[in-house]
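Reopening this ticket.

The earlier resolution said the output was attached, but the attachment link was broken on my side. Pasting everything inline this time so it's all in one place.
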Amino acid sequence: MRKIGLFLLLVIFLAWPVRADELEDLQKQIEELSRAREQSISATKPLESELARLQQRLALITAGIAKAKDDLRALEASIAQREEEFSVQYALLSERVLSYYKASRAPSTFLVLFTTGPSGNLARDLFYRGVVTDRDKDIIAQISLELIQLDKDKQKVEADRASLAILQEKVDKEAEFFEGEIAGAKAYQSKLSQQIASLNAQQQNIIAQKLASLGISRSAASPGRCDSDLTNGRDPGFSPKLAIFTYGVPHRNGLNQYGAWGRAKINQGVEQILQEYYPGKTLKKDYNQGIQITTTTGWSGSIEEYVKRIYEMPDSWTENDLAALKAQAVAARSYALNVTSNGIKPICTNEQCQVFKPEPKGGNWDRAVTATSGWVLMDGGNPAFTQYASTHGGYIKSINKFDGPGGNPGSLSDLNSRAYDRESPWFYCDWGSRSEYSKTAWLKTQELADIVNVILLARKDSGIRNHLYQFDRPNPEGAETWSFERVKSELSARGGKPFNSINDGSVAVDFGSGTTSSISLFGDAGTESFSGSEFKDWFNLRAPANIQIVGPLYNVEKR
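Inline output:
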């Protein structure tokens, strides 16, 4: 087993330092770290199996040791009792030995014949004397044997106690060894996983930049909403066409603004709405209203005056939607107090914090702020970090819960009909557009086939992924970006079967977490299935223009 520990040290030595400016090197390091982690996991499995077997044996041995200790305690108690009894019997034994000795030295039968009376008495005396003498002999023998056994039992107790101590020490050492080896291997695997995640984060900067170009708004009051290609009626000029539609915006934490609006419409009150989106937080209704808030643009005023200038919900939301507006007012107030540490630090005025303008918003927003003056959600003794976003797409990430009435949906159509935020313009959208195709995000069957081929090629040879970025923009690594035909050729050369077209697709969804777990795509080369995250990552790297999957729950549509 020690060889496994040496193997793990050798694997650690093989993981070289990271150079973040060279994405090709980063990918090679990711692959090397991934292989090292898998080897470590494979090496650890026999240890875990051996430890499991050892623990089973240890349980049996421990039970045996416990029983042996109980037996020892019982034997020791018996010895103590027998020693106490023998202290009495020893005196009796002494008397018996003396009596037996006297009896054995008594006058002979002939002497008795001459010294006793009638013959009847003589026979009786001889009989009694013989019986007593035999009984004394038996008692003496019995007590002697018991004393010998007592001494043997004492010796056994001492020997068993020593043996049990040695056995316990050996078992403890073996268990400690295996547990130490496994703990070390697990720690090493965890370290590798963290390194891999860190490297992937650097590589994913390209995707993040592409995502940022979409200008997705977090605020329900923002005019920059999704222009869904299912409803805008624009024709890209080709058919059939396919697109990937995402549910909600990426955030999914805390208050769902359109979800709160949907809840208010069915008469849920502000406190119920807050409890649903911020479980575990307590509502304090008399927080200090005089705390001064300063923005990074130079405005300063009380927390209440500050909240009156928050522009996070649409002007169209009326008195009938006041519960949603009140919930937003409490969330905005709590958020500002949290990020400024009760007014000590300034707060920005855009969506990186929350949208603020120098002029009060007025209207029903002013009413909502006034009605909740001093209301703050608390996390322990401090204002809570109350994130929020316009649209969660039917799920609350922070508590892993469906945001709709009843239990989890059973299908996407069920989700579409029951989610509280289903009326949001961000609820179901294909993000991105191309001006040459009527500003839509529809893809040709060949374009989707190209993305599938890219994933299949990367599976065959991870060392060529620097050639697999979107081909309508400069390669971020300065390498040659392979075209649709080149990707097909490279895939064929590695034994793969490339697609020329993708004709349709379907998704499998985890409706507990609101995540696309897998996607299957059908085309002229058959059917290929991918995990939801694998397809999303490669789609976002390879898809043209700024077309993106922006969240964990998505679907494929064909028209």
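Reporter confirms the inline version is readable. The longest strand covers residues 502-510. Residues 213-247+426-558 form one domain.
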